[in-house]
Amino acid sequence: MFAAKTIVIEPGRSVRHYWRDLWRYRELFYFMAWRDLLLRYKRMTIGFAWAILRPLLTMLVFTLVFGKLAKLPSGGIPYAILVYAGLLPWQFFATAFADAGNSLTNKETIITKIYFPRLIIPASAVIVSFVDFLAASSILVGLMVWYGFLPDGRIFALPLFVFILFVLTLGAGLWISALSAKYKDFRYVIPFIVQIGLYLSPVGFKSTLVPEMWRMVYALNPMVGIIEGFRWSILGAESGGLETSVAISAALSLLLLLTGMAYFRRMESSLAELL
After folding, report:
1. pLDDT tens column, 37-82
2. Main-chain dihedrals φ then ψ at residue 256, nearest 5 degrees
3. Which residues contact 134 (CB under 8 A, 6 or more apart)?
4. How many domains, the chain?
5. CA-CA 20 to 30 A from 27: which of 83, 168, 228, 245?
6. 163 and 189 Cβ atoms separated by less than 8 Å
7. Are residues 202 and 228 in contact, defined by beta-carbon separation less than 8 angstroms?
């Protein structure tokens, strides 16, 4: 005779186990991120160099259009550096956002066969894009050496803006991945969001060009405070109302992450059926 086994169901137990599982499956997280990184460049002729060439070529186009043709002011900073310092965080966000949006669909086979915390999938897509971000940062260092433009003590604030950027990107990635799984149309909306977001963010220009009466509204785009924060810490570029813009970006990024995690968790149990 076997003794009956008693199962005790406690409120919140599944939640605690879920976050514990994230740690237990950390090796799967590393594997997925590494595999996605290899697959991204495996069939490309120039391979990993594309992570550097893409933002570099975009910077050249923006410098020509905004710096040479439109002759927008740069505040005494070489326009190429000004653009690249804004392009660097934007490129990370845009790439991670697009990759996270398609991540669940691309992993449909494994999702329907075995259990693991599904949050690992969009998070690994963000990590892969972050590796590209680090590689592309070498171009900014090269540009600053070329122009003889050295940062001052404000450079030590850069990790803070990188952290806010990562929080924003992960939160947006969780939202778009869950929405893309539930509503198939979102896969076609992602490129449009990325394209519009590029022109709504101060990548090719300084946000000081926006009329002062509209700057608070403009700062509701969380990339505004992040991009201007990057420029302030790397280039010493002054921007009116920087503290307010950064505070808004940080608050919106945190809100997006918390709500994104909550929505993703709510959708997670039905992902296999949705896909």
Report:
1. 777 767 655 556 777 788 888 888 888 888 888 788 777 888 889 9
2. -65, -40
3. none
4. 1
5. 168
6. no
7. yes
Q: Is residue 54 part of a domain?
A: yes
Q: At what angle do helices 26-42 and 13-24 cross, to 10 degrees?
A: 50
127-141: per-residue pLDDT in tens? 989 988 998 998 999
What single-letter DSSP state applies at residue 61? Answer: H
Residue type for position 119: L
The residue segments making up the domain with residue 260 are 47-274
The answer to whether position 218 is within a domain reads yes
Spatial neighbors of 129 by CB under 8 A, at least 6 apart, are 92, 95, 96, 99, 169
- Asked whether residue 37 is assigned to any structural domain, the reply reads no
User: Distance between CA 119 and CA 269 in Å, rounded?
Assistant: 11
Q: Is residue 24 part of a domain?
A: no
Q: Which of 40, 17, 186 is nearest to 104 (CA)?
A: 186
What's the pLDDT tens digit per position in 182-213?
Answer: 888 888 888 888 989 998 999 988 888 888 88
Determine phi and psi for 73, rounding to 5 degrees: -70, 145
Residues 6+ apart with CB under 8 A from 98: 190, 191, 194
Q: What is the mean pLDDT of residues 233-255?
A: 88
